[in-house]
Amino acid sequence: MTGRETGPGTYLGMPAFPDPDPARFPAFPEAAREAVRDAALRANLRYATHTIRDKRARAVAELADWDRLRAAGKAVKDRTLRHLDRYLLQLEESVTAAGGTVHWAADAAEANRIVTELVLATGEREVVKVKSMATQEIGLNEALEAAGVTAYETDLAELIVQLGHDRPSHILVPAIHRNRGEIRDIFRAEMGRWGRPAPEGLGDSPAELAEAARLHLREKFLRAKVGISGANFMVAETGTMVVLESEGNGRMCLTLPETLISVVGIEKVVPTFRDLEIFLQTLPRSSTAERMNPYTTLWTGLGPSKGADGDGPSAFHLVLLDNGRTDILADEVGRQALRCIRCSACLNVCPVYERAGGHAYGSVYPGPIGAVLSPQLRGTGSPIDASLPYASTLCGACYDVCPVAIDIPEVLVHLRERVVQGGPVTRRGVRVRIRPARGHAAERAAMRAARLLLDRPDALRAGERLLARARRLGIRPHRLPGPGRAWTDARELPEPPPEPFRDWWARERGTATRTGSKDRKGDDGPK
Amino acid sequence: MRVALFVTCVNDALYPATGVAVVRLLERLGVAVDFPAGQTCCGQPQYNTGYRHEAEPLLRRTAAAFEGHPYVVTPSGSCAAMVREHYPRMGRRAAAEGRGSALAELADGLAPRVYELTEFLVDVLGVTDVGAYFPHVVTYHPSCHGLRSLGLGDRPRRLLAAVKGLELVELPGAEECCGFGGTFAVKNPDVSAAMGADKLRSARASGAEVLCGADNSCLAHLGGMLRRRDDPLRTLHIAEILAATEEDAPR
Fold first, then answer.
1. Are residues B26 and B141 in the same domain?
2. What pLDDT, on the 0 to 100 scale, is given for residue B249?
3. CA A333 to CA B31: how far, in whole Å?
């Protein structure tokens, strides 16, 4: 199988937007342009990211052994990924032994079908949801809606996004692009159509907004018979699922409904209960900058009582989601992205995310981690996916803060190579060689020409002297044509010097040394 | 002591004054400088844009040019990081692609001998006061690859703080990228310019007359924005400040 990638092989939906359709999801530079010019959005993002960034730095600095925790987290994840088949089977056994039912979903469509059938079998037409990236990735809410089931998001920020018919723009704080006034307006306009309306005269103080959401959600928690969640971790040896959260909505969804369905990416498994020790320290500090998150819910199947005492769900289903993950695992550079624990520290520290905002990334996974996950999960065929690996200055701030040490710049450069040169990738378990993405022919030619020039010092010197001659002739362009315009739109060109360094050296310091120099003192031209 | 100067293509073609400053500074400190003329470019533009294979001939050229030199000094954190971090990676990738270990051997042989200028001054020569004179208010922008890949830490600032007449002021948000990012500057021009504008706002807020850096490519971006606005703030490479004396002031 060989061919140019024409579209996403793996469904990675934004809710309501199934494919990275070029009309809706243009290449990153175009998508970012709007956000850069939106002063209010820039201010919201700057304030929010800098606040959490600084808090994270303080929370991490408190731990003397942070570097060791980071290395341990990386090592545990790598070891698990190396033996993923074994740990997943062990997990299935443990969950089943504890009274749960395990389902395997190769892709988004299969996962959506499994969950939809499970919900319909209960006879219910409403579900409450814990914040979950996996269910957003597969577009579960939309699939349920198509089957006549309404999914209510119960995380405050997810609620804001859902009520606002909006798209999430951050992994942890999906409504980070909204300010208090906008949230108040959304609550006033939309809450009544979904359930309990916003209180009369709702203001925009955080306490008022949180109380409005609490009242609105309370009736959903008490009524719902089906809860849907993801999980931050799954323990293979015990079958224990772990959800970390801040608001208590997760605890409600995980304990009140009769049926609990968890959709979890296969990379979330860890071998032993003890491994949680690392991540329960690194995840809260990296994501919300807290020493410990307010709610950590752990459950093992139906528990020892198998739900018989009426405490907790009486049915638990675990849907293990692949959706492109084993294909990523086949790539020796790209696979490190599977270590991700979705903390979002890389988003908060990224200078590009801060200016471009989350929507520009055209995926439920924005920011630096999104720029390495989306083109691996969806392929590099669409304009947005081919441009995401370039949505970074490679400044390395993301790698520095990553609690599992994903070298995001390394993966970005690796994916850039895939975009411009093509190469071997794995799609649905089959090794294929893809051709380069469209639109890089001129760049490829320019890079090759530059290399040919740079591989010949005398040719390079001739070029440098042309620059100096241009200076003497007074040629000082302020606007360049073609791709150079992107430079001169905002910046002057560097002023050409009177002579290149190598000419100064030849004149002032005599013959160049070693390695077969052709320079001689007083030389006036390439030999 | 003898060192080989790896001037870098950007400095050779566009900022020769930086190369000249490195030569004068090192000679003043008693170090003999060679300039192997076979050197051109480390290949970072190709590598970071996704053209790893186009960068390989430049790896071979650079390794050959500096063969036998125990100390290779470069006034660019970014190019030093390319050689130290990415050359070995390129070698390993070539080996993994079944093309033998020759490239890896060249890369691994060169990488540990390459020093960024401030690193060489502080770690190898053991100096922080280089006898410079520069009577201006200066702030320092630590470029990302020097800061994070090489871990230059406070070396550049210690060198600047020891310069006679120089008042070093803090740059707010110093560790944030300036938005250059190589081909990022032209592939994502809007975000790049927005980042540059924020960096310049911080630099002006610092009260500095001179925005100093250790990478002229970042300074080309920031300086180009300043000159477009006729801003009195100017950019200058740290080598030119450290080379400056009472007798010999920089441009």
1. no
2. 76
3. 41
Is A450 an 8 Å CB contact of chain B?
Answer: yes
| Inter-chain Cβ pairs, chain A and chain B, closer than 8 A | 222
* Nearest beta carbon to residue A501 from set B11, B48, B191: B11
B155 and B120 share a domain?
A: no
Last residue within a domain, chosen from B80, B101, B125: B125
- Single-letter residue type at A333: V
Whether A403 shows a pLDDT value over 90: the answer reads yes
pLDDT tens digits for range A466-475: 888 888 888 8
Q: Please give, rounded to a whole number of angstroms, the shortest distance from the CA of A490 to a CA of chain B.
A: 6
Touching A: B residues 140-159, CB under 8 Å? 144-145, 148-149
Q: Give the pLDDT of residue A18.
A: 43
Segments forming the whole domain that contains residue B176:
137-243
> What architecture (CATH level 2) is domain A63-323?
3-Layer(aba) Sandwich (3.40)
Contact A237, A94 (CB under 8 A): yes
> Domain check: are B160 and B87 in the same one?
no
Pure H helices in A269-366? 276-287, 325-329, 345-349, 351-356
Q: Which chain A residue shows the shortest CA-CA distance from B23?
A: A505
| B79 located within any domain | yes
Instruction: Say yes or no for a CB contact (<8 Å) between A457 and B40.
Output: yes
| H helices present in A164-287, as ranges | 180-194, 206-223, 249-255, 276-287
CA A197, distance to chain mean position in Å, is: 33
Q: Which of A351, A497, A515 sits opposite B177 (nearest CB)?
A: A351
Q: Does the A20-51+326-434 domain belong in CATH 1.10.1060?
A: yes
- 3-class SS at B74? strand
Cα of A1 vs its chain's centroid, Å: 29
Residue A47 makes CB contacts below 8 A (sequence gap 6+) with: none
**What are residue A202's DSSP bridge partners?**
none
Which residues in chain B have their CB less than 8 angstroms from residue A397's CB? 144, 148, 175-177
Q: Looking at the structure, do residues B116 and B52 belong to the same domain, yes or no?
A: yes
Same domain, B208 and B229: yes
* Residue B63 domain flag: yes
State ipTM.
0.97
Beta carbons of B146 and B103 less than 8 angstroms apart: no
Q: pLDDT tens-digit profile of A66-88?
A: 999 999 999 999 999 999 999 99
Q: Is residue B250 part of a domain?
A: no
Structure tokens at B247: 């007798």
Domain count, chain B: 2
Q: Is residue B73 part of a domain?
A: yes
Kindly report the pTM of this predicted structure. Answer: 0.94
Task: Kindly report, residue by residue over B50-70, the tens digit of the pLDDT.
Answer: 999 999 999 999 999 999 999
Tell whether A416 lies on the interface with B, counting CB pairs under 8 A.
yes
3-state secondary structure of A418: helix
